[in-house]
Amino acid sequence: MSTSERISALVGPASFVVAGLLSIAVAIFAALVIEQRTTEDIGTALEADGIEWVEVSANGLQVFLDGTAPDEAARFRAQTQASALIDADRVINRLDVAAQDFSTPPRFSLDMLRNGDGIQLIGLIPAPEGDEAFAVAETIADIAGEADVVNMIETAELAAPDTWDAALAYGLRALETLPRSKVTVLADRVEIEAVGDTREERAEFVARLQQNQPEGVRVILDISAPRPVITPYALRFVRDDSGGRFETCTADTVDAREQIVAAGRAAGASGVIPCTIGLGVPSPSWGDAVEIALGALAELGSGSVTFSDADVTLIASENTEQDEFDNVVGELDAALPDLFSLQAVLQEPETLASAGPARFTAILDPDTGVRLRGRLPDGAIGASVQTFAVALYGAERTDVATRSVTDLPQGWSVRVMAGLRALAELSSGQLTVEPDTLRLTGETGDQDLVSRITRMLSEDLGQGADFQLDVRYNDTLDPVASQPTDEECVARIRAIQDDTKITFDPASTEINEAAGAVLDQIAEVLPDCLQVRIEIGGHTDAQGGETMNLNLSQARADAVLNGLLARGILTTNLTAQGYGESQPIADNETESGREENRRIEFRLLASAEVAGLAASADDQPRTRGGILAEGAIADWPFEARPLPRPDVN
Fold first, then answer.
1. DSSP string over 493-538
2. What stretch of H or E contains 286?
3. Does domain 234-346 bear CATH number 3.40.50.1100?
4. What is the CATH number assigned to the segment(s) 352-477?
5. Euclidean distance between CA atoms 168 and 326, whole angstroms
6. Is 196 strand, coil or helix?
7. Sign of CA dihedral 383, 385, 389, 392
């Protein structure tokens, strides 16, 4: 074989080898380019999502994620981002999760839900000694009584934040106070949502929870009074020579209330018109029906219209013409919405029989009781009326001097008992029962009582019965409205001191007879002022050393505080503070001036001062469980015992 033939024979295979090597090189280069681009794309996407702690690398088709995630959620998010760009099977997750740093405590919280079914607990609480969750649950069980307790509390064996114990103690007090509530306890605040059955109950809840709120803890109160369930759904409007007035008014919606109030004003009512929005209504046309009926009464001129659910009673006065009465009643009957039924009565002129001796009266005096006079049926029926009165008012407070007769109108005893039941709701008043009517006059401290009495009488006497109410609201009888304001509380105490100062014997901190007499008077005022934060300030003249005077003033302020406590006064809203000679009100160079400077002052604390109080642990009333004294800072573990209730009488 010639040389050229040998070369040709070698060139062919060599070309294939070179081509193969070039193909491999190109493939390797392409793979490297793909790996680089893939790692760059994933790295860019992770950085855009704020994930900068991941190192992305590739080996062929596999992509590796290396690094340390701050938590499990961040680790999962990094893997999800990478899997969104390439096939998830190609992502090899080699990420670690940083060990949890418990040097920073978690956010402790406890949600407590209480209703008629029981109490539910959920949250994370600090438990440095391991048994605190059990102690809390034991306290909750004591509050729940026989109701069920669902306990889903988790614990962390960490020290509690500084204000946690105080917040928890207050939260437990709120939970016991509020039978339907949600209480959320955090280290820096307590959030309370609750409902009260009545306006008075809501006011009582708010007043109690505003007392002794823990220092350094924000308290958020959201307490409402829900719409009452009204049965029967009632309304009564009376129009006479003095104008028109609602004796009771209910509505199912805000729009219906506005419609009814406007119709009442058009029919002669004036002033503030209370109209309760309640639950339960016989027809969605309640407002329309009331508006039509009040318009008919205004056309008649005088009389009354009463609604009891879908039953409507129109009573026209005796001076109404028969033709006019027939026309108005016919139009009203045709105009009322479906479901409403009308009963119309034209009163007959009063006769000698109705104006004669057939009369019963009952006079209620808040001090002496009730005095019954007039006529009652003879036999067992009259005796049952007397027994009913004794049951209502008590035997010692019921003075019976009635006459038993046989010729009384039908249903007389029923009307008398219905009137006595309504009279018992008043603070004072008089009931008069005659053949044609029942009249009730008096005073009450309950703004909603007239509505309730109207519904009671409508139920007891039935449709078409005529009764007249003249019950006046007196705010001095209202236990809520009559409570003094913060400023009035302090003014009453100062008025007592204007007459006689609290004085001490020289160099003494003992309450002497004169000072005791003043404290007796102040002790009569303070039960109405439990919601008011008041400072008892002790002051001296400038004689003696400054430190000695400061200590003496503090001791005397403490003596006054203890003197009130010895008189049965709840003192958790009072703070004793000594000022020594630092706040003179007169010249210390004269004897009269020094005498004025030696004083005890009761001062209303401003909100900022209340929030800034930092009483020492020795000055705080405590229990082992932290909930015996309201507002005390709680110590662990809690004891299962009921909270004391302040005397608000």
1. HHHHHHHS-----TT--S--HHHHHHHHHHHHHGGGGTTS-EEEEE
2. helix 286-300
3. no
4. 3.40.1520.20
5. 69
6. coil
7. positive
Strands 54-59 and 62-69: antiparallel
Dist CA 63 CA 69 (whole Å): 17
Model pTM above 0.90: no
More confident residue, 190 or 282: 190
Cα distance between residue 643 and residue 201, in whole Å: 18
Q: Is 71 helix (H, G, I), strand (E, B) or coil?
A: coil
Kindly list the domain boundaries of the chain, sorted by start residue: 23-97, 109-224, 234-346, 352-477, 486-614
Selection from 36, 35, 94, 41 nearest residue 67 by Cα:
94
Cβ atoms of 80 and 45 within 8 Å: the answer is: no
Q: Cα(590)–Cα(227) distance, rounded to whole angstroms? A: 65
562 CB burial (10 A radius; 0-12, 13-18, 19+): middle
Q: CA-CA distances (angstroms) from residue 342 to 293, 307, 311, 451, 455?
A: 10, 9, 6, 21, 18
Question: Environment class of residue 560 by beta-carbon count within 10 Å: exposed (0-12), middle (13-18) or buried (19+)?
Answer: buried
Residue 638 one-letter amino acid = F
Distances (CA, A) of 506 to 116, 474, 510, 511: 60, 49, 10, 12
pLDDT digits (tens, 9 = 90+) for 54-84: 888 888 778 888 988 887 778 878 887 787 7
Count, residues in the chain: 649
DSSP annotation of 266 reads: H
The answer to whether the CB of 58 falls within 8 A of the CB of 35 is yes
d(C-alpha 330, C-alpha 539), whole Å: 81
pLDDT in tens, 446-480: 877 888 888 888 888 876 677 888 888 887 777 66
Rounded Cα gap, residues 202 and 637, in angstroms: 31
Cα separations (Å) of 355 from 350, 430, 433?
Answer: 7, 18, 11
Q: How far apart, in Å, are the Cα atoms of 307 and each of 198, 237, 282, 411, 431?
A: 23, 9, 11, 22, 23
**CATH class of domain segment(s) 486-614:** alpha beta
In the block, tokens 């003192």 appear at 571
Q: In what order do the strands lie in the sheet with 311-316?
A: 243-248, 234-240, 303-308, 311-316, 341-346
DSSP bridge partners of 221: 192
- Is it true that 109-224 and 486-614 share their CATH fold? no
Which tens digit of pLDDT belongs to each residue from 394-417? 989 999 988 888 888 888 999 999
HSE value, Cβ hemisphere, 13 Å, CA-based, for 14: 6
Answer for the pair 229, 197: CB distance below 8 angstroms, yes or no.
no
Cα 142 to chain centroid distance, Å, stands at: 22
| CATH number at 23-97 | 3.30.1340.30
- How many C-beta atoms surround the C-beta of residue 540 within 10 A? 27
At 213-246, the pLDDT tens digits run: 888 888 888 887 666 777 778 899 999 988 999 9
User: CA-to-CA distance for 295 and 233, rounded, in angstroms?
Assistant: 20
**Order of strands, sheet of 118-126, starting from the edge strand that comes earlier in the sequence:** 148-156, 118-126, 109-115, 181-186, 189-195, 218-224
**Residue 74 vs residues 70, 94, 120, 236: alpha-carbon distances, Å:** 7, 13, 33, 67
